[in-house]
Structure formats: C-alpha cells, structure tokens
Design brief:
214 residues, Glucose Permease (Domain IIA), nine-stranded antiparallel β-sheet, 16 strands, 31% strand
C-alpha cells in the first residue's frame, strides 16, 4: 500500500521524534496501530522544546512552560471525524532521568485503560473510501481544546484541537499515526508521508530534523 500523503498538522518550528524513517515499528511495537506513528515537538529559535530550569534536571515541569503547549492542531487531510475523546488531564512534563524512571512504572496502568490512557485527548479522521479507507489519529491533545464532533467533515488545515500533554506523553507534542481500523487492539499501522513544507513533495522527516511550516 502506498503511504498516505498528509499535510503537517501545525504551523511553526518543529522537530521529530520516533520517526518511521529511522525504524519500523517507530515506537518499538506494532500494538495499537503505531507501527508507522511519528511524534512532533515544537521548538523555539534555539531548538528547545522549553527553556532549561532546575526542574527540567531534577523534577517535573508544567506543560505551559513548553513552546508547543496550546498550539493549534490542524486536520492533515480531508475526511470525516470518526472519533473524539476529551477530558483527560494535561499532566506534568518529564525530561529528567529521575522523573522518567518514575513515569515508566505507571505505563502498565495507561495500557490497561486503552485508547484514553495511551492517546489521551484525541481526534480520529476517516480518510478515503473503500479499499483506500484509513484512520488518522491525532493524539495527546490539550484538555478542552477539541473543536470538532463525530460526523463533521473537515478539510486539510481545519483546526481540530490544540497540542497538549495528555495520555502517554512525557512532554507536549503531536502524535500522528495512520491505521486500517479503529479497533485499536487489532489495528495495523499504515505508512504515511507528509508534503514537504518547501516543495510539496512527499517527505518523511527523520529523528531530530527541524523544519518550519508556514
């Protein structure tokens, strides 16, 4: 199957983590349709997701301290809103080894909760028809930011929510994945690419790439 061509679901300066251009499965598992998922973190002019502080080395940080928190998240393709979930808290961000170690101990509980625990606040778009039908998940959105409802038709660029730190997230970011089903325990991840912000050509950025979308 050809990769699904998407627009970037944001504007501004961003960097990449967990890219399928580096490895598949990109998140270390095929579970929950994440095989080709990709994460985007907004950065400032110095390439930082947030300024360093005492808390960034030894504790947790408020999500509001991060460049991306609250940034508009846009539909990356035309489609129909197939699912929404809101109400999950935006928890403290974790960049220090100590706080990340503690966070890892709570992973089992998030998995037990299923999509709400993993994806947090999220929107799913049904894109295409028939054999070409796929489901695009935008995850970890800010609580209270979701701007669409199930059944809404959207165009690429339609605001659907805002970048948050809900679900299985250690700092505010936008998680994008494409799957063949919304039955997440059985869904298979599908490949994706993005329109290059300068050329419009299909492009899959690699880990640590920094780029700007206008």
């Amino acid at each position: 199957m050809e990769p699904l061509l998407l627009s970037f679901p944001f504007t501004g300066r961003w960097t990449v983590q967990n890219s399928p251009a580096n490895r598949v499965p990109s998140h270390g598992t095929h579970l929950f349709g994440t095989a080709y998922a990709i994460d985007f973190v907004a950065v400032d002019g110095h390439g930082r997701s947030a300024p360093p502080s005492f808390r960034s080395f030894f504790g947790t940080e408020p999500p509001e301290a991060f460049t991306g928190f609250g940034s508009p998240v846009l539909a990356p393709a035309a489609g129909t809103v197939a699912a929404v979930h809101d109400g999950e808290p935006d928890h403290e961000a974790r960049r220090s080894p100590l706080s990340l170690a503690g966070y890892a101990l709570t992973q089992r509980e998030r998995v037990r909760r299923g999509p709400a625990g993993i994806a947090g606040n999220h929107v799913v778009l049904a894109v295409g028809t028939g054999r070409d039908l796929s489901y695009v998940l935008l995850a970890h959105l800010r609580r209270g930011s979701i701007a669409v409802s199930v059944g809404d038709s959207v165009s690429a660029g339609t605001p659907v929510g805002a970048c948050g730190n809900s679900g299985n997230s250690t700092e505010p970011h936008v998680h994008v994945q494409v799957a063949d089903s919304m039955d997440w325990e059985r869904a298979a991840g599908l490949p994706l690419v993005f329109a290059h912000p300068a050329t419009g050509q299909p492009w899959l950025p690699r880990n640590a790439d920094v780029f700007e979308v206008s």
